[in-house]
Each structure stands twice: as structure tokens, then as C-alpha cells.
Write a structure and sequence with these properties.
12 helices; 358 residues; eight-stranded parallel beta sheet; five-stranded mixed beta sheet; Sulfite Reductase Hemoprotein, domain 1; TIM Barrel; alpha/beta
Length: 358
């Protein structure tokens, strides 16, 4: 049984973070924010996949101005990601950003940070204090050294220093992130941070890589932290379509039995008994399942050995044969279908089950 670390709670738009709120799934667009149309379209795809909070890069005034149009056409809270220029943070909030991500140490000093905090207070916008291994202040690196699994102190101290700067300005609507591209440093850093603050934590492995290495690194680091009750919101960072980040995030939450969204797919790894082209079949079924909300266990199996028998617990499934396939429910065969018709017939059965489950 996972016992969540108790934290303060903040709200970004209509999504609560921390306290007893569900662990929320985030992603970030990879479109040019200035192209509001493409950005809106991608956010729509992310929201359909289950993304609950989305972040956009704001590198210049045109991007900050586009935030207003984007906000008007999306259904999930929008965070503006700011680096170096405090004016962009203020402009993004004035244009409707519901959260901002900044590293207070690189905004140009206390006076400029104060202007950002004043704008956040005026607009009711929480601040994510985000520190990465590559953005730590030089004096902290000189004192503690580069963050490692044995000693992530520089990351912790950088985050807490920046939090204190904002607290001194009379603002406490914050969450914290301390990201590293190293799995063990990420784990060690968040463990330490969780011991010394009750602010909600955004967890993640930065620059994790492509689909396979990024999924593995993120799942190891975040899986361990979430299992230990650490983390209130998170992003799986992949060099990939950001929709894939959301899919991986929900599979991670499902594996830990923290949250479930839509059906669970069970599929066999295939072997020499397989007599059906299973890979594209499984991929097509998986894509369809992403559009479903009903909690079902769905099996895609390569042969009858791994079909109704080993996948008996599945609500519905298919198993391949030589040029044919069977469709089964709860271990009982209900249809035998030609291979070239198997996908369409199976998807129709899934649609019927979703309708029946309302």
C-alpha cells in the first residue's frame, strides 16, 4: 500500500496539486508556441490522451502574446515555461497563463524576481521553482560539487535558496522540481528534498531520451519515487510525440495501482507458435484503446496457447491461428474470424463493450 507524502496543496486552473489530490499527469508541447493553431491542435491531442496540465515554451514576446489565443481554445490548464527574461513571465501571466515555470536564480536579481512574484500574486498564478543539474549556481557547485547519487546537495540547496527568495517576497503558492538526466541522482535528490519541505513536488527525469531509453529511465526513477509516496505531479520526458509521454505516464500509474485510465492491454511477446501478423494488430488495438475510457482488461495473443487459457482473466481478447483468429470473453470463445477481418470485428466488439459500460 503506497502512503503519499503529505504536502501543501496548490491549484493550477481547475487542477489541484498536492495534499490529497490525485497525482496529475503533465506534458509539454513541441510546437512553436507562436503558431497558436498548431499548438492548440497538439494540446487537443494531449488532452484526449489524458494530459491534465500542459506546458508551453515562451522564448519571446510573440510566444507570450500567443498564450491568450491558446488559452481560449483549450480545455486543460496552461503553464508558461520561462528562462532568463522576467518580462516574458509577466507577459505570459497577463495573457492568461495559469502557472509559470521559472528558475528564480536566472531572472536577473531580486528586483526582477519581485516583479514576477507581484504578477503571480495579482493573477493568482502558482510558480514552479525548477532547477536542473545544468542550471545550478556556481557558488553551490563550488561548495557541494556537481550533483551525484551520493551527494545531490547542490540540487537541493539551489531549489531551497530560490524558494526562500520567493517566500521573502511574501508568496508561497509554489511547487518544486529538481531534475537530473541521471536516474540515481534524481531518486536521491527527491528523497532528500521530500524530507526538508512540504511544498508539492513535480518529479521527472530531464533529457531522458527516446521512446525506449526514456521510458525505461523515467519508469525506474519515477516508479521508485511514486512507490515511496514522493511526487504530486509528473512528466515523462521523451524525444517523441508528447502524446507518447502521456501514454507512458498512465501505464506507470496503472502498474503501481495508483490511477487507471481506460483499458489495460495484455499482449504476448510472440514465439515460434505465432501464425498471425501480431505486431500491427496489437499496435492498432492499442491505438484504439487510447480513445476509450472504460476500465477493461483487453488481451491480444499470438496463438491459442496464450489465448483464452493464459488470458482467461481478460474481459475480452483475440488469439491468432493460421489465417484465422478467435475472439473470446472471460476465457470463452465467442467468434472465429478470418485474419483479414479480425481487427475490424474486434474493434466493433470493443465499441459495443464501451457502450454497454456507459
Amino acid at each position: 500500500m503506497i502512503r503519499r507524502r503529505q504536502t501543501r496543496q496548490i491549484r493550477i486552473g481547475d487542477v489541484s496539486i498536492g495534499g490529497s489530490a490525485p497525482i496529475s499527469v503533465q506534458s509539454m508541447t513541441n510546437t512553436d508556441t507562436r503558431d497558436a493553431g498548431r499548438t492548440i491542435a497538439q494540446i487537443g491531442e494531449l488532452a484526449a490522451a489524458g494530459c491534465e496540465i500542459v506546458r508551453v515554451a515562451v522564448p519571446d514576446p510573440q510566444a507570450a502574446a500567443a498564450v491568450r489565443q491558446i488559452r481560449e481554445h483549450i480545455s486543460i490548464p496552461l503553464i508558461a515555461d520561462i528562462h532568463f527574461d522576467w518580462r516574458l513571465a509577466v507577459a505570459a501571466m497577463e495573457n492568461g497563463a495559469q502557472g509559470i515555470r521559472v528558475n528564480p536564480g536566472n531572472l536577473g536579481g531580486r528586483e526582477k524576481l519581485a516583479r514576477v512574484v507581484d504578477a503571480a500574486r495579482m493573477n493568482g498564478v502558482p510558480i514552479r521553482v525548477g532547477v536542473n543539474s545544468g542550471s545550478i549556481e556556481k557558488d553551490l557547485l563550488a561548495r557541494y560539487g556537481y550533483p551525484t547519487p551520493a551527494d545531490p546537495s547542490a540540487l537541493i540547496e539551489s531549489a531551497l535558496r530560490n524558494v526562500r527568495l520567493i517566500e521573502e517576497l511574501g508568496y508561497t503558492e509554489m511547487k518544486i522540481s529538481i531534475k537530473s538526466s541521471d536516474v540515481l541522482t534524481t531518486i536521491a535528490g527527491y528523497r532528500r528534498l521530500a524530507e526538508v519541505t512540504d511544498y508539492p513536488l513535480h518529479i521527472g527525469v530531464t533529457e531522458a531520451g527516446g521512446l525506449i531509453p526514456g521510458t525505461v529511465k523515467s519508469s525506474v526513477a519515477l516508479g521508485i519515487l511514486l512507490f515511496e509516496g514522493i511526487g504530486d505531479t509528473f512528466r515523462i520526458s521523451l524525444t517523441r510525440d508528447p502524446v507518447e509521454e502521456v501514454r507512458v505516464a498512465y501505464e506507470l500509474l496503472r502498474a503501481l495501482r495508483i490511477r487507471e485510465r481506460g483499458p489495460e492491454l495484455i499482449s504476448c511477446p510472440t514465439c515460434g507458435r505465432t501464425r498471425i501478423d501480431l505486431f500491427p494488430l496489437a499496435e492498432a488495438v492499442e491505438r484504439h484503446l487510447q480513445t476509450m475510457r472504460t476500465s477493461l482488461k483487453v488481451a491480444v495473443m499470438g496463438c491459442v496457447v496464450n489465448g483464452p487459457g493464459e488470458a482467461r482473466e481478460a474481459d475480452i481478447g483475440i488469439a491468432g491461428g493460421h489465417g484465422v483468429g478467435i475472439i473470446f470473453k472471460k476465457g470463452e470463445i465467442i467468434k472465429k474470424v478470418k485474419e483479414d477481418e479480425l481487427l475490424s470485428v474486434f474493434l466493433e466488439e470493443l465499441r459495443k463493450m464501451e457502450e454497454e459500460n456507459g
